[in-house]
Design brief:
By secondary structure, the protein is of the alpha+beta class. 29% of the residues lie in helices and 18% in strands.
């Protein structure tokens, strides 16, 4: 019996919620077709990914229907991880930590 519940047409959560909310506020409408709704969700997640470096690079979508759940993973790859251009290994004790008193 802890917590709250609410009935809303949509919600966004997490570090990308502001970017995602702006997409929903602009394009959400009642009684959307499933493909239109998936495109909206995908665009909202992409807006978050592009504006938050820690959010990964894939869009995953789960569609919940009465009696059925369908997972699209990945639904879309927003950006590919690039290959490192240099060698980022360092010799032991190269990066010393100093303690100040």
């Amino acid at each position: 019996p802890h917590g709250t519940t609410d009935k809303l047409p949509y919600v966004t959560m997490g570090s990308v919620s502001l970017a995602a909310m702006s997409v929903f506020e602009d394009r959400y409408k009642l009684n959307m077709e499933e493909e239109e709704a998936k495109a909206l969700v995908c665009d909202a997640i992409k807006a978050g990914i592009i504006n938050d470096l820690g959010s990964g690079s894939n869009v995953d979508i789960t569609v919940i229907r009465k009696g059925e759940v369908e997972v699209f993973r990945p639904y879309q790859v927003v950006c590919q991880k690039s290959q490192r251009q240099g060698d980022y290994t360092f010799p032991p004790r190269h990066n010393r930590c100093y303690q100040y008193h």
